[in-house]
Amino acid sequence: MTYSKLASASAIVLAATTLSTKAHAEDLTLCWAAWDPANALVELSKEFEAESGHTMNFEFVPWPNFADRMLNELNSGGKLCDLLIGDSQWIGGGAENGHYVKLNDFFDAEGISMDDFAPATVYAYSTWPKGTPNYYALPAMGDANGWFYRKDWFEDPEIQAAYKEATGQDLREPQSQKELLQIAQFFQGREIDGKTVYGAAIFTERGSEGITMGVTGALYPWGFKYENTPGSYDMEGAVNSPEAVEALEFYKEFYKTATPPGYTNSYMGESLDAFKSGQVAMAMNWFAFFPGLYADPNTGGDKIDFFVNPPQNQPGSTLGGQGISVVSYSDKQDAALEYIKWFANPEVQAKWWELGGYSAHNSVLEDPGFVDSQPFAGDFLEAMAGVQDFWQEPAYAELLLAMQKRIHDYVVADQGTAQEALDLLIEDWTEVFEDEGKL
Amino acid sequence: MSDRTIDRVAQATPVRVARKIRGLSDRAIAWIFISPTIFLLLAINIFPLIWTIQLSFTNYKANRIGREVKDVGFRNYERILTDSDTWLNMQATAHFLFWTIFFQVLIGFTLAWLINKKFKGNDLWTTIIVLPMMLSPAVVGNFWKFLYQPQIGLFNYIVSWFTGKDPSSFEMLGSVTLAPWAIVIVDTWMWTPFVMLICLAGLRSIPDYIYEAAEIDRASKLRQFFTITIPMVLPFLMLAVLFRGIENFKMFDLVVQLTGGGPGSVTELTSINLKREAFEKWRTGYASAYAIILFVTVFGLASIYVKALNKVKQR
C-alpha cells in the first residue's frame, strides 16, 4: 500500500514536472530578411532549441519587401515577431517609438558586455541616441558593401597584356575608386570566351534603398559627411561639398560607362545574377553574400576574389548588417532574452562565423586564425574599420526615400547636375528635420 | 403558386409580429432592408473619408503613436500644390491616362468591329484576344520586364529586326524618353480587350433593321458607319473610357512592377507617390491631403464626364 502510494506520488510529481517544463517551453518567432545568412541562423538555432526546449520559428521576408513588411508589423504593434534582426537604420525608430526592448538591465544582469563586440557594430546596430550606452540590440550580423571580381580574367595573360597596353598599368585589385572605374571601363563591351562582357554591376535600384547604398560607396571615400558637426543637422557645405559633388559625378560616369545595358533598377539580386552569369568582371554587394559566391560551382572557388571598397581621399565603406532586438509587443520576452543570452556566447559566435554568418564578437574577429579562415575575412575586417552608415533617425525612411529620388533622378534619369541633386537633397532633408522639430 | 406561398407565410407569422409589420409603411420597410447596407457604406466609405479629411489638416504620422498631433491648417495642401514634383507626377499620370485611353479605344473599337463580322473562328479569336485581361497585373509586369530586357528581351529583338538597330542599344524601361511609352504599351496590351468587349456589346445591340433601312436608302458603308454605328456605339465607348480613366488614374501595381516609378521619377504616377508618402515615409497627414486632392480631381472630372455621357444617351 505504501509502495503504491509512493509510486502514485512519484508519478504525479513526474507528470507535474513534465507539464511545468512544457509550460515554459515557448514557440519563438525570429524575423529577418530572406537571404543566405538566414539559412545559417536556422542551422545555428537548432542548438538553442536542444538546450532550452524552446521551439524556433522563422519569418524571413525577401529584401525588397523586408522594410515595408517589418516596419508595418512594428507600427501596428504586431506580435508576429518575438525577436527581430532589423536593419541598422531602424534603431532610432525602434527605440523612440517603443518597438524594441531596452537591453541595458538584461545585459548587466547576464554579464553581457558590449565591450566584447566590435565598436563600429555596437555604435551602428545597438545604440540610440547614437554612441550613448543605451542598447536596444545585440550586434548580430556585421556587414559592409564590398566588391568581388573574376580572378581568372584578371590573371589571364592576354587580358593583362591588353590592359597594360590600354592603360600603361598592371591589372590588379583596384587601389582607388578611379582605378576601379578604369578597370571597369576596360572590361566594358570586351569579348571574353566568345561572349561580350561588361565592367561592373553596381546598385541603381530606385524603390527601396539600392542606389543610396551604392552611391555612398563612392561618397564616403571622397569624404562625404551628413553634417558639419555631428548632431547639429547642419548639412549645408557637408552634403553638397565639392568632394561630394565629384563623387556623385563619378558614380554617374561609372553607371553610364561601365555597367551592363538595362542596368537601371538593380540591387543585390541583379548584382549576383550579373556576376554568376559571367556578364561582369566585377560587382559590388554585401559581404553577407560572399560565402555563397565563393561556394558557387561556376564562378566561385579559384575564379573569384574579393576586395574592400577602394579608398579615394580616404577609406570608406557603406555599412550593412543588423542587430538582434526583442520586440516589445511580444508575450514571450523572457524566452526571447534567453535566445539573446545564448547568441552572445563566444562559442555560439564562433560557430555562427563558421556557418556563414558574420559575427561581430571580438573573440571571433581577434582570433589569430580569423584572417585566413575565409578568402574575404581580411577584407571584412578592413571594411568594418572604415564603415559609415546612413542616418539612423526615427524619420530615416523619409530621409532615405528623398535620397533615392534625388540620386536616381541625376544618375539614371539624367536630370540636372550633381550640385543641384545634392542641393535639393539638403532641402528635402531640412524639411524632414523641421517636421521632426530638430531644426 | 406564389399566392399560396404568401398565404402560408402570412398564416405562419405570429399575430403580434403581423400587427407590427402591418403598422409599418412601405417606405419604413424599405429602410429596414437597406439599413445594413447603408451602415456598411458609412463604416467603410464615409467614415474613413471624413477621417481622412480631418487627418489632412494635421501632421499625424501613423508610425509615431506617441508623437503630438498638431493642427497645421492648409499647410499640407499648400505644400503639395506648390511642390514641382507633384506636378511632374500629375504630368506623368496625364500622359499615361491620355495615351492608354487613346490607343485602347482605337484598337479596342477596331478589334470589336472586326470580331463583329461573321467569320469562321470568331469565338476562338475573341477568347484569345481577351486572355491578357485575365492575367494578374503583377504577372504582366514581370513578364513584360523580361520582354523589355535589352540583352535578351523579345521586344528589343523584334524592334531590332524591323529597324536594324542593335537590341541592346535602347532601353525601354531605363530610358527617360522611352519608359513612359513602355508602360503605355503594356497597359494597352492588357486592357484593350476590355474596351473591345464593351464596344462589341454596343455593336451587337444595334438592330439589323436599321442597317437594312440604310441599305434601302442606298447609304454607303462609310455613311452607315458614321451615322449609325458610331453614334449608337458612342455611349458604350464613353462608358469604357470612363472605366479605363478611373482605373488608370489609380494605376499602381503594373507600373511598380515594370519601372518602380523610374528611371528617376518619370513614370512615378500619382498613386505611386501617394503610396510612398503614406506607407513608406509614413507622412499620414500629408498623404491624406494628397489623397483628398486626387479624390476631388477624379470625382470632379468623372462628374463632368457622366453629365456628358447622359447627354449622349438622351440623343
> What separation lies between the terminal Cα atoms of chain A?
83 Å
Q: Quaternary status of these chains? A: heterodimer
Distance between the termini of chain B: 43 Å
**Looking at this structure, what is the CATH superfamily of the largest domain in chain A?**
Periplasmic binding protein-like II
Largest sheet of chain B: none
Question: Any idea how many domains of chain A?
Answer: 2
Please give the CATH architecture of the largest domain in chain A.
3-Layer(aba) Sandwich
Q: Using the CA coordinates, give the radius of gyration of chain A.
A: 24 Å
CATH superfamily of the largest domain in chain B: MetI-like
Structurally, how many domains make up the residues of chain B?
2
Helical content class of chain B: over 70%
Number of helices of chain A: 20
Can you offer a commentary on this structure?
- The complex is a heterodimer of chains A (439) and B (315).
- Chain A is α/β, with parallel strands linked by helices and 439 residues long.
- Chain A folds into two domains: 22-143 and 320-388, 3-Layer(aba) Sandwich (D-Maltodextrin-Binding Protein, domain 2); 145-318 and 395-435, Periplasmic binding protein-like II (D-Maltodextrin-Binding Protein, domain 2, 3-Layer(aba) Sandwich).
- Chain A has 20 helices and twelve strands.
- A five-stranded mixed beta sheet of chain A has the order 2-1-3-11-4, with helices on both faces. A five-stranded mixed beta sheet of chain A has the order 6-7-8-5-9. A two-stranded parallel sheet of chain A has the order 10-12.
- In chain A, strand 6 and strand 7 (195-201) form a beta hairpin.
- The longest helix of chain A has 23 residues, at 2-24.
- Chain A is globular.
- With 315 residues, chain B is an all-alpha fold.
- Chain B has two domains: 2-55, no CATH class; 77-314, MetI-like fold, CATH 1.10.3720.10.
- Chain B is built from 14 helices and no strands.
- The model of chain B has no long low-confidence stretch (mean pLDDT 91).
- The A-B interface holds A 68, 71-72, 75, 93, 97-98, 205-207, 260-265, 394, 397-398, 401, 405, 408-410, 412-415, 435 and B 59, 62-66, 85, 148-151, 168-169, 171, 173-174, 176, 256, 259-266, 276, 279-283.
